[in-house]
Design brief:
Layout: E1 5-14, H1 21-39, E2 43-51, H2 55-63, H3 68-85, E3 92-95, H4 99-114, E4 118-128, E5 133-135, E6 154-163, H5 169-178, E7 183-184, H6 186-197, E8 203-204, E9 206-207, E10 215-216, E11 219-224, H7 226-231, H8 233-240, E12 254-258, H9 262-276, E13 284-287, E14 290-292, E15 295-296, H10 307-314, H11 316-326, E16 333-334, H12 337-367, H13 379-397, H14 401-422, H15 424-427, H16 434-455, H17 460-469
Parallel strand pairs: 1-2, 1-12, 2-3, 7-13, 12-13, 14-16
Antiparallel strand pairs: 4-5, 4-6, 6-8, 9-11, 10-11, 14-15
Helix pairs in contact: 2-3, 4-8, 5-6, 6-9, 10-11, 11-12, 11-14, 12-16, 13-14, 13-16, 14-16, 16-17
Bound molecules: ligand ME8.
């Protein structure tokens, strides 16, 4: 359902360590979806930010020899900078240390407390600080280690405030049964539903042994559990980071994240909202892990890829394209320098960049630089462009970013075949075939214009350059403009430097 608005979010990242390609992946995918919805004329609110409270951050700050706030300030800035370098078009960057965020979290907890959903109890359990979560004995690996981080867990026992999560089991199951597309892909939906079905324990939502957090409003001895503090960011941001009437964006249309935090978002988050009396998000899209050497890229495994050298050598758009195309959205995928180079050279430089260069050069050589019109109408190519434009929209509606790129690439390859089939250099030798030459050149320019528009969310900078080379307004990227015949004829092409120049040497 379209309301003319689209609110989407990334997780807020922990400021315990520097960002890496895994974080870049979610931010880029979310940015691609955000740009696509803007192209459709929707009013988009795109939220990202940093998760700054809790024991994990306090420990990292301690290890770095600075206060939690100083540490959070420095690391949060790195995530903000990464967003800038990645071309992220986020509307706001939330920090859970923002005073307005904390105040709103307190207000929401007050609502839940008043409702009777929060009570005092004591709890002892195995705690993983890296996850900021308790585990049952049966979930531990070798009886002692966290199933996600593989590191020993700690026994934690204290008096805390608890949220009656167990009371929401039936309502959560109803939510799942009434909304089969609430979590995509299907396998994650099933997994989350199973967690609920198996039974839910009440959740400890405060901590007494740390003080780096938002104070529980009715109990100054306790701070709010970092995950509750963090999850509410998606709501609090609209109360102070979205201008007047920011609440109009609620509820989120799409929340993206990797599968590591499925339970928090697909089970705990909707229950918290139900308790606070807030409308639920429309959809969660769960992606896989970016792997390096067969393992999830993470600080714990130490197999981190720094995105910056790839951006320096190949350009930002190459990284955006590679991640969208190589790692099938929803599944795990491997990041490799060889694979990156192969896609850059084979697809971006040869198939897309060269096609554009050849088209611009031929229009220059044979038609004085002006794209001819096609009085005959190239029905076959017109139909293919229209089918691809529809397929791309459908792929985005299904949050299948990889399929959207693959669909666009079908068109790129079709246009490359068109050059070979029509051989404009042969047509140009025969004045009787001038009409055929006009048609071939028009189809190439018009097809490329559609490619540049459809691909713009993935590679905004390169697609704007492509539009400029085709003599088009680089700001004219509305999806509606990808319609056949909407623009190429009569434009004066502008030969320029290659979109994807050859790269000497490559990062490891
Ligand atoms: O979990 N592959 O923060 P976090 C793909 N603060 N995505 C990856 C990735 C990888 N190898 N590594 C990280 C937290 N990510 C909480 C979230 S939200 C209310 C609170 C991405 O810094 C992916 O989106 O550990 C994953 O879900 C997120 O970073 C985890 O970031």
């Amino acid at each position: 359902m379209s309301t003319g608005r689209f609110y989407l979010t990334t997780p807020i990242y922990y400021v315990n360590a520097d960002p890496h390609v895994g974080h870049a992946y979610t931010t880029i995918m979310t940015d691609i979806v955000a740009r696509h919805h803007r192209q459709r004329g929707e009013e988009v609110f795109f939220l990202t930010g940093t998760d700054e409270h809790g024991a994990k951050i306090a420990q990292a700050a301690d290890a770095a020899g600075r206060s939690p706030k100083d540490h959070a300030d420095a690391l949060s800035q790195r995530f903000r900078d990464l967003g800038g370098v990645l071309g992220a078009s986020n509307s706001f960057f939330i920090r859970t240390t923002d005073a307005a965020h904390g105040a709103e979290v307190q207000r929401l907890l007050g609502v839940m407390h008043e409702k009777g959903d929060i009570y005092k109890g004591s709890y002892g359990g195995w705690y993983c600080t890296a996850c900021e979560a308790f585990y049952n004995e049966g979930d531990l690996v070798d009886g002692t280690n966290c199933p996600i981080h593989g590191r020993p867990v700690d026994w934690l026992e204290e008096e805390n405030w608890f949220f009656r999560l167990s009371a929401y089991r039936e309502r959560l199951l109803e939510l799942y049964d009434a909304n089969p597309g609430w979590v995509v892909p299907q396998a994650r939906f099933n997994e989350a539903r199973r967690m609920i079905e198996l039974g839910l324990e009440d959740l400890s939502i405060s901590r007494s042994q740390i003080d780096w957090g938002v104070q529980v409003p009715w109990d100054p001895e306790q701070v709010v559990y970092v995950w509750v503090d963090a999850l509410f960011n998606y709501w609090t941001a609209l109360t102070y980071g979205a201008g007047e009437d920011g609440g109009r964006f609620w509820p989120p249309d799409l929340q993206l994240m990797a599968k590591d935090i499925l339970k928090f978002h697909a089970v705990i988050w909707p229950a918290l909202l139900m308790s606070a009396g807030i409308e639920l998000p429309r959809r969660l899209a769960i992606h896989g892990y970016v792997l390096k050497g067969g393992e999830k890229m993470s600080k714990t495994t130490g197999n981190l890829v720094d995105p910056f050298p790839f951006i320096e050598d190949y350009g930002l758009d190459a990284l955006r394209y590679y991640l969208a195309r190589e790692i099938r959205f929803g599944e795990d995928g491997t990041f490799s320098a060889e694979g990156f180079d192969a896609r850059y050279t084979g697809e971006l430089a040869n198939e897309f960049g060269n096609l554009l260069n050849r088209t611009v050069a031929m229009v220059g050589r044979y038609r004085g630089g002006v794209v001819p019109s096609d009085p005959g109408g190239d029905a076959e190519i017109a139909a293919e462009v229209s089918a691809v434009a529809d397929a791309v929209t459908a792929a985005f509606d299904a949050v299948d970013i990889t399929r959207a790129v693959e669909d666009i690439w079908v068109l790129v390859r079709r246009l490359n075949r068109l050059v070979e089939e029509r051989a404009p250099w042969t047509l140009a030798k025969d004045p009787d075939r001038a009409g055929e030459l006009d048609q071939a050149l028009f189809s190439l320019a018009e097809g490329l214009r559609a490619v540049a528009i459809l691909l713009w969310p993935v590679m905004p900078g390169s697609c704007e350059k492509a539009l400029l080379a085709l003599g088009q307004d680089p700001a004219a990227v509305a999806t509606a403009g990808a319609r056949w015949g909407a623009g190429a004829a009569g434009a004066t092409v502008v030969p320029g430097t290659p979109l994807f120049p050859r790269v000497e040497g490559r990062p490891e």
